[in-house]
Recover the amino acids of this structure.
């Protein structure tokens, strides 16, 4: 996200980069519970409620004040991740999730969502090779991750005015260029 934030700053924007789950002190504590590899017995409903608690705090404490101050917010994941992971991945009713998300976020929806799409096994392999944090969600079986990917793609198809799907199997510079182009198209529209 740093190169994208730098690009937006070069265009004269004040930008804050954030991540979910987490993004606030309380949210980071909740993130620890959600992501802990040893919490394998976590019920999907518990997972959902923890994500929603983190998100509600994040929006109230960080996102809304940042937007109200006239700054841009770049966030690595947000409410659509709950629809993809818990809705499609865990096969929880999407209508129920949408109502819960609306409550947790106060109806705050991104102006633009960039989906960095990559084939499921390639994405998991890339994450393993990068040596980053491997968490409880990453440890779900490949079928779960395939449902999540298909969920994201369906969400993008259903709201093409908000989503841009970028082929993340391309070299990094091409992915970053596509992200910049998507933002420029939105800003110049």
């Amino acid at each position: 996200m740093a190169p994208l934030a730098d690009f937006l700053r070069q265009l004269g924007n004040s930008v804050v980069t954030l991540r979910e789950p987490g993004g606030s002190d309380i949210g980071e504590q909740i993130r620890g519970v959600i992501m802990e590899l040893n919490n394998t017995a976590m019920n999907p409903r518990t997972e959902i409620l923890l994500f929603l608690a983190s998100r509600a705090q994040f929006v109230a404490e960080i996102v809304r004040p940042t937007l109200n101050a006239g700054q841009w917010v770049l966030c690595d994941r947000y409410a659509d991740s709950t629809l993809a992971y818990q809705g499609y991945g865990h096969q929880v009713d999407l209508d129920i999730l949408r109502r819960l998300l609306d409550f947790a976020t106060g109806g705050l929806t991104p102006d633009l969502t960039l989906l960095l799409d990559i084939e499921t096994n390639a994405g998991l392999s890339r994450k393993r090779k990068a040596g980053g944090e491997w968490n409880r969600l990453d440890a779900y079986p490949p079928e779960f991750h395939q449902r999540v990917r298909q969920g994201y793609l369906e969400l993008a198809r259903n709201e093409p005015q908000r989503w841009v799907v970028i082929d993340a199997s391309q070299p990094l510079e091409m992915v970053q260029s596509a992200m910049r182009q998507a933002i420029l198209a939105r800003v110049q529209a």
